[in-house]
Hints:
Helix content is 2%, strand content 43%. With 233 residues, the protein is mostly beta strands. It is globular, with a radius of gyration of 17 Å.
Amino acid sequence: MPFRPGPDFPTCTRTPSWRPGVLVSALLLGACIHPVEAPAWRIEAEDPAAIVRIGSSGSIDIDTAKGLTLWHPQRLTGPVRIRFEAMAVARGGPNDAVSDLNAFWMASDPAAPDGSVFAAGRFGRFERYDTLKTYYVGIGGNRNTTTRMRRYVGVPGVRPLLPEHDRTGAADMLRPNRWTTITLIADGSHIAVERDGRTLFVLNDAEPYRSGWFALRTTQSHLKIRRLRISHR
């Protein structure tokens, strides 16, 4: 899909790494970034050709052939509700695979003194996120065949999955070129994912993650995100 600069997507600039004055920072050499006023999203991407376009209105366009994680820069403290609309694009582009609308929330790194997810570079490689303590949801994963929620425990190779948090029905997958509304909730022990106004997953966590970072995540996909709102209640 050709990119044409405009008021929402200014001309692409490339930076080798984060530097002052560039508010959207690429944590991989050569990633294509589009600086905007705020927030200062951070990109971790396996593919140097991955493109993230962020519009002045806050819209996000992610087009990548490999794993990519886009971190919101601010640490969040619960209770928190993260709401956004997302679309899996299928319009003939090389990455228009309709797959992997994923997210981390309340993520922290137990190996970092302050728990910062930015202390260690993960470069978009999925297995490197195993060391986080975080909630994770993957809608339309594995080439749009699974929809799952997990509670990561910070152990490499360990991604716990409860049977009730493993969906394979067609209604729980992504539909191409259709907007869907996702809400991620962390309210004390009440952890939940809502989709289009209904509860998709719920977890009563006896040891909840009360603080951490939020990220969008995908692989070999083309996603559009809009109307992102983070609120505390």
